[in-house]
Amino acid sequence: MNLQRLPASTAGLVFSVLMLLSTRVLAVEVTDNFDLGGAIRARVDQDSSRGVREFGIDTLMLSAKYNSDSWIGAARYRFYGKDYPYQYTHHFGDINFAEYAWIGYRFDPTQQVQVGLNQIPFGLQRLYSDTFLETVAFTMGLEDVDEVGAKYIKDIGDWNLQTGYYARPAWRGHGTSNGSTYSTVVTPGDSYVDGGSRNVERNMFVARLARNVQMGAWKNEFGASVLTSTLYNLDTHRDGQRYDAAVHYTGKNGPWNVRLQYTRQTMSLKNPMGDNQTISVGGYDGTYNMATRGNLYQANASYAIPGSYLGGWIKDAQLYTSYDLYVKSDPQFRNTQRWIVGTSFSLKFLSIYVEWREGRNDPYIGDSSYAQSLAAGGVNDWRGQLFMSIGYYF
Question: Residues of the chain with pLDDT > 90: what percent?
Answer without folding.
Answer: 87
